[in-house]
Design brief:
The protein is an alpha/beta fold. It has two domains: 216 residues, Rossmann fold (3-Layer(aba) Sandwich); 158 residues, 3-Layer(aba) Sandwich (Rossmann fold), CATH 3.40.50.2300. The protein contains twelve helices and 15 strands. The N terminus is likely disordered.
Amino acid sequence: MQSRRSFIKALTLSASIAAIGLPMGASAADTIKVGILHSLSGTMAISETALKNVALMTIEEINAKGGVMGKMLEPVVVDPASNWPLFAEKARQLISQDKVAVTFGCWTSVSRKSVNPVFKELNGLLFYPVQYEGEELEKNVFYTGAAPNQQAIPAVEYLMSAEGGSAKRFVLLGTDYVYPRTTNKILRAFLHSKGVKDEDIMEEYTPFGHSDYQTIIANIKKFASAGKKTAVVSTINGDSNVPFYKELGNAGLKATDVPVVAFSVGEEELRGVDTKPLLGHLAAWNYFMTIKNPVNAAFIKKYQDWAKKNNVPNADTVVTNDPMEATYVGIHMWAQAVEKAKSTDTDKVIAAMGGQTFKAPSGFTLTMDKTNHHLHKPVYIGEVKADGQFNVVWKTKEPIRAQPWSPFIAGNESKQGL
C-alpha cells in the first residue's frame, strides 16, 4: 500500500513538473520553489486569477531559458479564496512547509497587511504587484505596483486640469477597507491643498461583493447637480465593479457629465461589462494593453499563446493589464537579483534587488529604487473604448520615483527609504 502511494505521489509530481517545463527526473534539489499567493475563488478571483496565470507563464519563460542559477523554478500555487486571515495561513505554509524562496501575490491591501507579519517573522520575501495606498515600507516586501504619487495624485490632477474637464467637486467612492480609505485620506488632504472645501467632497464606501449601486448612483447625480463640474474617483475593488458600471450605464451617467476615474479597473475587469455606456470614463494605471511597442506586442502574444495552450477559460479573449505587467516585471527582476547574489537567501536577494532594471511592456526600462523597494514607473490615464480597451489620453514623459510616504499626510516629512 505504501509503495503504491509513493508511486502515485511520484506520478503526480512528474506530471506537474512536465506541465511547467521542468525536465523529467528533476528532483527537489534541482528546483527553486516559488510561491503564488492569489485568490482563485471569492470576490477577488475576477482580478487575481490572471495574475496567477501570468506568473506561471513567466516561470515557464525563465525555465525555457535555463532557469535561475541553472535550476528550474517550481511554482507552488495556493488559493486564499478572498479570505484575508487565510492569506496569512497560506503565506506561512508556503514559507515554512513548502520552503519557497520567494512569493508573488496578494491584491488587496488588507491581504498584504495580513501577510506582512508572517514574511517579517520568517524572513520570507514577497513581491506585491498592485497599486496601493502607500504609508508602508517593509524590508521583506518589494512593491511593483504604483504608490499614490504614481497613480492617484496624477489622476486627480488630470481631472482638475482643463484637459481633464476642470472638476471642482469630487466623489471618493470605494470598497470599505484600508486601501480606499487611506488613498481617500491622502486625496482629501491633496484636494484641500488645492483649495477644494469639504462640502465639495462626497465620500462613500461599500462592502466587498456589494451589488446594489442604485441609491449611490442617484446620490452622485444629486451631488453633481449643484452646478460645479463633478468627477468620481473610484477605488471599488473586485467583482463589485460589474454592477457599479452597469448601474452607471442604466442611470445614463455619461463621462461627459460626470467622469469616473478608476484605480482598480483594467482590461480584465471590463471583460464582464457592456462597455458601450462607459465610453470616455477613465482609469489611471502604469500600463495599458493598447500601448504600442515591440516589448508589449511580444508580451501580449506570449500570454495569448500561453492561455490557449493551457486551456484558460475564454482563452480567445484574454487580455493583459497593469498588475499582470507588474507581476511579470517582478518575477524577472527577482530572477536577475538571484543571479547577481548567486543565492536565493532572502537578505542577499534584497541587497541585490536595489538598482535592478528591466525593459517593460509599458515602453520604459523600469528601475527598482535602491532604498525604498518600489519601482520607478510611468503614469498613464486611459479612456474606456467600446471594445473594453483604453485609449491613452495622458502620460508622463518618463518613469516617476515612488513616494511611499505621502507628503500630504502630516508626520511623513522624515520618512524615506529603509
